[in-house]
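This is your field. Please look over both lines of this record.
***
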Amino acid sequence: MTKSILITGASGFLGSHLTQRFVDEGFTVIILKKSSLNNQRINHLQDKIISYDIDKIDLSTPFCENSIDAVIHTATLYGRSNEKSAELIEVNLLLPLKVLELAVSSGTKIFINTDTVLNKNTNNYSLSKTQFLEWLKFLKYDIRIFNLKLEHIYGDRDDFSKFIPYIINELLLKKKEICGFINTLGFILIGLVNLANF
C-alpha cells in the first residue's frame, strides 16, 4: 500500500525539494499551499500531486478526502518583507497547530515539524517558531512527533535573500571576503536532507 504524505509549504524551498523526493519515491503527495504564492518550484509536479489551496478550502478537507500517514510541516513566514507579527503567528504557530489537531483527529501516525536553530528572542520569526515547539511539548497527542531544527539549508532553486545563496553571490561578485565565523556554522546541502525513510 502506498504511503501518503501531506506537506505544508510545498511551494517553498525545502517543501518543493521534499515534494519532488517523495513523488520520485512513489508516495502519494498531498500539498497545502496558498493560491497567491509562486508555485514555479513545483509546477512540473502538478499532475503527480494532490493540491489544496488553504485560502480557498476548509483546512479539514484534505484530511476528510485522503488517508494521510504523515504530515511534514515546512510552511514558514520569515518576516523578511516586514510582515506584521500577527501574520507570522498565523503561519508559524496557528497553521501548524490546526494541521496537527486535524492530523490527530484523522488518525495520522507522524507529524514532522521543521524548526529553527535561532534563539526565541532573535526576532518575531524565531519567537513564533519556538512558541509552536512549546505547544508540541505541552500537548500530549497520540501521534509520533519529530521536531527538526534545521540550520542553513541551501541548494538548487534557493532564494538569493537567504544566508548561503546571499554569501555565495556576494563572493562571486567579489563584494565580500570570507570571515572566520563561517567555520562555526553548520551548512546542509538540500540533497542531504532525507526524510523519505520514515
About this structure: The radius of gyration is 17 Å.
